[in-house]
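Researcher: Going back to the complex we discussed earlier. I've cleaned up the inputs and rechecked each line, so this should be the final set. Can you rerun the prediction on the complete assembly and write out the structure?
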Amino acid sequence: MTPAAPLTASTAWQAPSRFALLLLALAAVLAFYPLYGEALFPGQHDYFLQKLTAIMILAMLAMSLDLLVGIGGMVSLGHAAFFGLGGYALALFGPEYEAANLWTTLPMTLGAVGLAALVIGALSIRTGGIYFIMITLAFGQMFYYVFNDADFAGGSDGTYIYVRPAVEVFGLKLVDLGDAVTFFYVVFAAMMGTYVFLRVLLASPFGKVLRGIGINPQRVRGVGYNPDAYKLVAFVIGAMLAGLAGYLSAAQFGFVNPSMMSWHHSGTVLVMVILGGLGTLHGAILGAFALEILHAVIEARTEHWLLVLGGLIIVMVLTLPKGIAGLLERLTSPRANRARTGHEDRGES
Amino acid sequence: MKTVAKADIRRMQHASKATPPAAEPVMRVEGLTKSFGGLTAVARVDLIVNAGEAHAVIGPNGAGKSTLVNLLTGHLKPSAGRILFGGRDIAGLPAHKVARLGIGRSYQKTNVFAPLTVWENVWLTGQTALPHAMRFLRPAHTHKAVRERVEEALELVGLTDRAHTPAAAMSHGEQRQLELAMVLATKPRFLALDEPMAGMGPEESEKVVDLLLELRKTYPVLLVEHDMDAVFSIAHTLTVMVNGRVLESGPVEQVRESKAVQDAYLGDGDEDY
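Model: Rerun complete. Updated structure for the full complex:
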């Protein structure tokens, strides 16, 4: 919700808010983890490194869903299908026992996911509200069962990717994705890149219209924009980002299976977005980290972790209407009485 | 009186046909009809709005005034009839295309983007300065043409110093003003205003009346309004609708004097509020 640049006539540089500084600090804590992780968590460092990488991938997926749900007002329960499709695309487009070439497989993956999203979007965008939820759920499950029953993709067992994709220029290995720390940084860069890309998108004329559609599509139509066209483009962009996350996830674990696509997964990511704070993008990242870390911590302590986690989520959603992002923004807000309006009053200061 | 008024319209129509195309009315509605199942909300309505003219549509609740506006702006699809705007039949075009042709509308029920600031609200409509918004990378605020429209529209309605207030935090009257700024920022060629003064206090209404008196110099206006004082001070011509039909139409003074209108509407009109 925090516009990167104020829309006022003044283009003067504004000091970043305390909230923005906090987010930067959190990003730094994450970015330097490979340097201090060993000292802080001896013995568990490798596992944590892998876990954090996986969470960052989920954060990318959550941001891509936030574009649809939080900005465009399209509540999709089939978003994980594009994540899974991205993973399967890497498995199927790449050679079986050699490293896939990133320069060819990644564009092919994004193209395939984009095409699928274009078809699914064109068929579902016209519906709204509960019908959109149902139709995306149905498409998601359709993909799930197609890959669940497909022999070429290993059926319900899924399929392996034995070697991580190679990033080469003229046969020269640029980065070694096989190295866990390198892969961590590649995913970190992808996550930050996704965030910046979406921020830029939201500040563009397209982003303004999409946010308007999320609030009141009929009003936007009355002004002269066809909401369906803008929603479809957003749907395809969101799906392609989800596909990118799926590609990275498949590369990380060297394994894809249909559960990547299941509606449980779509639902979990939706919880991350809502928990973090809808429509803020950084909320999606915070939500992904919060949910996954809570999950890991509670699971390690009790076998009834689902019950405890579920209860916690309910309490958080009920007490934090603007999610974790809203809470942090309020806590870092200079004056208590500013808490209510939060970001809105920034333009005046 | 009724026949006189009809003859008058006929004379106007003939006059416009006889003169060169420049005198063609900005909007000409012919036989416009809208049925919802068995209910005919708008029945064979004829209407003319000429350049430089403010045309008011009045009538009791349920007369079909809002339905008429919705038909003219593409929010509803007519069952029959033609809507000639600038000589082109726009009946049945979707709302976003009608808006792009230059028909700007305001809504009876305040219809602003509540979570957004005043500036953001007007920006969204002013952005129609660009032929489309499929522009993804360049920041919106660097589009100078849009900025100028937004500043101008806010200036016109007097909301410039409220630019960074969230719409939700404004009074009802201010939201109505914002609504008007949003229409003006689209640089329309025609204004269709659905009760712009609905729910306003007397002072706020007065401000809007002044604004409309100013606007009618630039824009042809179709005004649906309950406030009779406002209608009589703003409108040049007047259409009275009852039960989806046109009861009377013509210059304000003429319609005002009409026996049929006085019997059916103006005379005991107070009961309708």
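Model: Worth noting: Chain A is about 65% helix and 5% strand.
Researcher: Good, that matches what I expected from the previous run.
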